[in-house]
Automatic annotation (TrEMBL):
Coiled-coil regions listed: none
Membrane topology according to the record: Multi-pass membrane protein
The name this protein goes by in its record: Flippase-like domain-containing protein
GO CC annotation, single: plasma membrane
Length: 335
């Protein structure tokens, strides 16, 4: 009798699938990074290497450390918000555990729609036993908190800036509207119900979505919402201030309010393009807005490259370092 081929155990198959997905995400990450760098290098070559090099030489190690420290403050403040919301949801996870999940998720920031960041839900399921539909409100509140904080920061900086930015108000309003919808439990539950009635598809999934939407009621009170927005506002303001410092060091001081407005608008606009991590769109918007304010390309190009490396790519680097640790510890904790 011919022996039947061995069938891999479910956990082995899942592990193999996770490995393939991880390599796919790394390939996507590397490809995006190469494309952005190639575009910036081409622009720098067109404007003259000497001028660009002269601007880069104005920065030393202390300045780079300061930029990274301000970005780190942003991540820690938003990580603290994740911890507060996790405890509000009823999870018994500690501060270190929640920071590990939050920062480790940055490794997946450049997946389409940043859906890869939902890996945090998988870690929570393994370590706490909570299903995804119970922890999904965390992801919604986190995204809504960022959108609301950045919209308010953009509006405030524009109000204080000497000149405005075209289309900034619609972007700010769209961000606030998205944040409001994402935190309305009844509205989301109704949208889910109407979708199911219209399509009749995936009744189990729709039921889980409705249960997740109802859990958002825990975050609807003013003190909780205000606290979440305040932490996000302080975090993103730190990165906006870093952009202001960078421009000052490169001899292109536009004022604090305008620098923060350009940074915030470009980050939001990049996200609206749908590109993973806003890569490409954010850089293009930043260079264009700086040019409109009279900043030459030999300054705007290196300034854009440096601030993106010390914000987005620094976060991804932190995530790549923490991701394997978070994955290993979650596997030890549960299936």
């Amino acid at each position: 009798m011919t022996p039947k081929p061995a069938v891999p155990a479910p956990e082995v198959r899942a592990s193999s699938l996770d490995t393939r997905r991880r390599w796919r995400d790394v390939a996507l990450l590397g490809g995006l990074f190469v494309l952005v760098i190639a575009g910036l290098v081409s622009l720098a070559a067109a404007t003259g290497w000497e001028e660009t090099r002269a601007q880069l030489m104005k920065l030393g190690l202390p300045q780079i450390i300061a930029l990274l420290a301000l970005s780190g403050a942003n991540y820690l403040l938003r990580g603290l918000r994740w911890h507060v919301c996790a405890r509000r949801l009823g999870l018994s996870t500690g501060l270190g555990q929640n920071l590990r999940h939050f920062l480790g998720g940055f490794a997946m920031s450049v997946t389409p729609g940043r859906l890869g960041e939902l890996v945090r839900m998988r870690w929570l399921r393994r370590e706490t036993g909570w299903p995804v539909e119970r922890t999904a409100p965390l992801a919604l509140v986190d995204r809504a908190g960022d959108l609301a904080a950045m919209a308010l920061l953009l509006a405030l900086s524009l109000a204080l800036a000497a000149s405005g930015i075209a289309f900034a108000l619609p972007v700010a309003l769209a961000s606030l509207a998205a944040a409001w919808v994402a935190t309305r439990p009844r509205l989301l539950a109704q949208i889910t119900t109407l979708t199911y009635r219209a399509t009749g598809l995936a009744p189990r999934l729709m039921g889980r979505l409705r249960r997740s939407a109802r859990s958002l009621a825990l975050f609807s009170s003013f003190p909780v919402a205000a606290g979440a927005i305040a932490l996000g506002l302080a975090g993103w303001a730190a990165e906006g201030y870093a952009f202001h410092l960078l421009l000052v060091w490169m001899g292109a001081d536009l004022g604090l309010a305008k620098a923060v407005a350009i940074f915030t608008f470009s980050t939001l606009a990049g996200g609206l393009t749908g590109a993973p991590g806003g890569v490409g769109g954010a850089e293009a918007a930043m260079i264009a807005l700086l040019s409109l304010d009279g900043i030459p390309l030999e300054v705007s190009i290196p300034a854009t490259a440096i601030i993106r490396v010390t914000t987005l790519w620094f976060a991804i680097g932190i995530g790549l370092l923490i991701f394997p640790v978070a994955e290993r510890l979650s596997r030890k904790a549960g299936p």
